[in-house]
What we know:
Bound molecules: nicotinamide-adenine-dinucleotide
Strand order of the largest sheet: 3-2-1-4-5-6-10
Structural class: alpha/beta
Oligomer: single chain
Largest sheet: 7 strands, parallel
CATH topology of the domain at 6-185 and 219-247: Rossmann fold
Distance between the termini: 42 Å
Radius of gyration: 19 Å
Amino acid sequence: MRSLRSILLTGGAGFIGSTLVRQLLMRDEVERLVVLDSLTYAGSRENLVGPDRDPRFHFVEGDILDLALVTRLLRENACSGLMNLAAESHVDNSIERPGDFISTNIGGTSVLLEAARSVAVPFLQCSTDEVYGPINFPKYADESQKLRPSSPYSASKASADLLVQAANTTYGQDVVIARCTNNYGPRQHPEKLIPKMIYHALRDEPLPIYGSGQQIRDWIHVEDCAKGLIATFEKGHSNRIYHLGAKFERTNLGIARSILKQLHKPESLIQQAPDRPGHDARYALDPRLALIELDWRARIPFRSGFEEVVRELSQNLRLG
Length: 320
Ligand code: NAD
């Protein structure tokens, strides 16, 4: 088992990172948790209100591209692990300006690997189901599925994964990769599908759905995902990939309809928008290896988890 004693977590002010912070602080083994985040438009200190009162928690505003800073933080905090969640994460932005994605997602991962190597600290990479490109129904991708990323975002994540694996092969670094499906939960940035749909519905504005809306995604509650990331770090075999998915598939159109139903709004608000270039039809991961080797599986049922998240996001988006 890898030790959770002192963790450097990058991207902790973002959506999944801020939930991972909460999950880590629930663990008594964690003596120190340092979050490194550059607070891009996607990250916010507000996401860390609550955990930031815990004496074990420390926040550092900084860039994962800063090798000297990352190395110093690992040394000064005698870290037992580095978890990398920092990323440019919005596919639409990657189509508009791929350079930021190459820089942070590939260059940043390379810097973090170098820093982890210099102090011999285990490394967890948070990756995505999007690296495989579309998976035809009824197939599920296992961890040996060929990488066929469609967007600059997924290509940058796939490239980062390859760097992580190469660090093990070349330098013998202790690394592990978790590939996650679509997360839903509190504190997700309003640019993403679910909060965006809620935002428009609350204002009786049209809900823009790309193309036919028949694209299928596997939805996992962010708390399940965060627990899976911890299990991957603690128990994952070195240089192995684990799939964190819930096997709960819904079309984007289905998600929009469920939101409208819960908010008592008419389906006529759904409006077709021109499809996103390179839009994958379906993502589907087989999470069996995570169950067998990590004793992890997603536990929050979609129906109740989703309803609660829509309620919570609606309250926040009403206030905002
Ligand atoms: P997010 O966009 O909400 O958060 C990303 C965080 O990284 C932000 O706080 C941002 O400020 C920070 N960041 C960005 N560039 C940085 C840099 N150069 N230096 C330091 N910090 C930087 O993203 P998220 O949805 O929480 O995703 C977290 C990770 O999980 C990403 O690696 C993403 O690829 C992966 N992932 C997300 C999902 C999902 O459904 N959200 C699914 C699969 C994988």
